[in-house]
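Cross-check.
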Amino acid sequence: MKTLMLLIAVAFISFTATTKAATSYFIDQAKLPFTAAPGATAYWGVHTNAGYHIEVPDDWNGELVVWAHGFRGFSENELTVDDHPLRYFLISKGYAWAASSYSRNNYDVTTAVQDTHALIKRFNGLVAKPDKIYMTGLSMGGHITAVIIEQFPTLFAGAMPICGAVGDYESFDFILDFNLAAQQLGTGTSIFPVEPMIYAGLTVPSIKANLESSPGSWPDELNQDGENLKNLVMMRSGGDRPNFDSSWYYWNTYRNIVTGPGNFLFDLGLSDGVMPRNPGSTVENIDVVYQFDTNPELSPEEQAFNDSVFRVALAPQSKNPNGLSQVPVINGNLSIPVLTMHNIGDLYAAINNEIAYATKVKQQGKDDLLVSRAYKGVMHCDFTAEEMVSSFLDLVDWVENGNKPAGDDYLDANNVAADDFGCQFTNGDHFLAAPCP
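Predicted model, tokenized:
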């Protein structure tokens, strides 16, 4: 029991700390040096308090591919650099690449955007000013990618957010939805924020016991309330789609973040919703209409749920639609070609991000500059090298030759629900992915 309480306490610290660790961020400069690929030159160092890696091929084509890494954690103090996942491919094709550690961890998109922009200036002075710059990023790095191309609309030629939080706050709101719905259906009441020790130690086990059809059958065999939760999660994360059964199983069984396997989405619910640079909670569900099925007309059961579930109002000024003063909002005002990649079963950064992004881009009248691609996986950021290379080459062809590549329509619910959704661009094995028809 003491071990459990310690883990829960660690979860509380990890998910509510914001700026307290800022002064203790550090870079181990002994870890920065790396060996250049054959026929290339490696550069590394510290710039604007962020570590960086740069690699330039001897036959450089004059173009730069920038990489934005994902979320490091709230309590991780060491700043580290992720090399571009397509590093060797890029070098072989004549592209230089650059990546920053950022000068802070945490979910601090603003700092990451500023440090990434500073790294590009560093590249200009260290190597040369590129003819073209492609912006790429993964997960939180997708959020960074979508923000930086809007903040500096003339700097980049094209962008590729990968499994990105391109719906800005959609992922946070989904975690709120999951945990409030689980509480309401599993215990008959709901509250936010939760008291972490009580929630993880008592409430979550009670939720699972009350939603499974027989002892120990969570999450495979559920009673009616459990099925309602599963369906609500499907609808709030992006709607009916072909591999959601596998997605539900994976994200409620395998993932282990703090309090044990199967608690990943519950552990994320330990947060109080306060993010860096924000004065209060950034999550809300005040206007959400929850549904247990695809029928837009509310059943008596759905109406009763909507009437009783706890409602969270957004803190004033917590989402600023302009600039970098807080965790930035993505407006969808594109000026360059953007190609996104997303696993349709991902519940960490679910496809509601893609739907929100495509909606904003369309509202801006810029949908001619967006291609969204769906993949059959259930994991977060699980893509094959072939899939990533193919998408990058298609983006380059689009930028250089005007050949807009094919994509998937996230805004057509019937298309998303089709058995072959996610199959068009899937190339290789994905964990728990059902074969394409």
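The beta strands are 40-47, 50-57, 63-68, 96-100, 132-138, 158-162, 338-343, 370-375. The longest helix spans residues 109-126. Passed to J.P. for a second look.
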